[in-house]
Amino acid sequence: MRGSRTFALALVLAVAAFAAGCGSSSNSSSGASGSTSSGSASSTTSSAGGGDAISAAVSAASAEKAAWTAAKSKLPASSPPAAAGRTLVAVSCSIQIEGCRALSQAHVEAAKALGWKTTLLDGRGNAQGWSSAVQAAIQLKPNVIALGAILPTAVGDLLRQAQAQGIRVVCTTCGATSGRDNVDFANGDAQISEPVGRDSADYALSKGGKKTDALVMYYPEFGTSIIRRDAFLNEYRALCPSCKSTVIAVRISEWGTSLPGRIQSLLQQDPGINWIFSPADETAVDSTNAIRASGLTDRVKVVGGNGERQSFQTVASDPSYAAVVATSYFLAGWEAMDNANRIVQGSAAAPLIVQANRLMDQSNVSTVKPGQYWSGDFDFRAAYEKLWRG
Predict the structure, then answer these.
(1) Burial (CB count <10 Å: 0-12, 13-18, 19+), residue 336
(2) Structural domains of the chain, with CATH
(3) The whole model's pTM is what?
(4) CA 259/CA 249 separation, integer angstroms
(5) CA-CA distance, 96 to 124, in Å (whole number)?
(6) 323-374, pLDDT tens digit by residue?
(7) Nearest Cα to 149, choosing from 128, 173, 126?
(8) Burial, 47: exposed, middle or buried (Cβ in 10 Å; 0-12, 13-18, 19+)?
(9) 90 touches 148 (CB < 8 A)
C-alpha cells in the first residue's frame, strides 16, 4: 500500500489545488472526497477496503517510532568538490512561519558550508510576496536561487527569466519535479510529506481503533499539505473503512487567529470527533488550544507534522498533542544544496535520498534536546562536508 502513492500523482494534486484558487473544493484528489471550502466541513465515511487492519496500524506506528539511521537515508557516495566563489539567494515562503524559515535557513547553512556567499529573502507567505522576493533575487544575479516551500508555478515567468540569465534554481517541498517548471532540482515533497500523513494515520488508528473519527486539515496555499492530507486519508481509509473523517481547508490567515474558535465550533457540532490531523505544528497548537477551551483534553487528541522546536516541548507536556511526525528540513535543505553544487559545475544531480521522518510521542520525544530541531538521528552535515572536500 505504501508504494502505491507515487510522486507524480502527489505533484498533480498539489499544483491543481493551488490553481483551483482560494478555499475551493478538491474533487480530483483520491483521498479528498470529504474536503470542503474554508469555513465549512462535511463528514464522509468510506465504504472501500477490507477487514479489520487496526493491528497493522499498531505495528506500523511502533516501527515508525524507531530512530532514523544514515543507512536509511542513502546519501550519495561521491560528489564534485565545493565550487569556489559561488553565490546563493534563498527565498523563504515566509520568515514568520517556522517550517518555511527552517527550510531556507538550511539552504543558507549548507551554502555557507560550501564556502558560498548567501542572502535570505522573505516571501511573506503569499503569491505577491513570493514574486517580489524572486524578482529581488534575480536582481542580485546569484549563481543559484533556492526556493523554500514556494510553488514554482506561482512565479514561473520570473524563474524563466532567471534561467535565461544563467541562474540555476533549486527548491525544497515546493510541489515541483526536477527539470520541470523552470526548476533544475526539486526535493522533499513526497519524500517528506507522504510519511507525515501516513504515519499520523497509523498512530491515530493505533490508539483509537475502529472508533477513530478524524478531523483532517490542509492548507490551500501549500501543496505539500495536500500531499500530507491525501496520504493520511489513503492510509486511514485503507486500514479502517468504517472510520469517519471530516476534511477542512484552513488558510494561513486563520493560524493563531480565528482557527482555535473554528475548531472549537466543529468539536461542538460533531461530538464524535476524537482525533485531529494537523499537517504542520502551527495548526496543531491551535487545535490543542481549542481542545483545552472545549474541556475535551481527555477525549480529543492531535497528531501533527513537521517537528518544529515548540512541537517537541508540547508533545512532552500537553496530553492533547499526542504525537508529531518529525521531519528533518535541514537534511532536505542540505541535499538541495549538494545538488546545486553539482549543477553549477555541469554535473548531473544525484539520485534523491530518503528523507528522514520519525514518529514521536511521549515515549521517545525526550531524544530531542530542548530548543533544537530533530536532525534525523545522524550527522548528515559532516557527511556532506566530507563529500565536498573531495
Answers:
(1) buried
(2) 2-64+191-306 (3.40.50.2300), 77-187+330-352 (3.40.50.2300)
(3) 0.84
(4) 11
(5) 7
(6) 999 999 999 999 999 999 999 999 999 999 999 999 999 999 999 988 889 9
(7) 173
(8) exposed
(9) yes
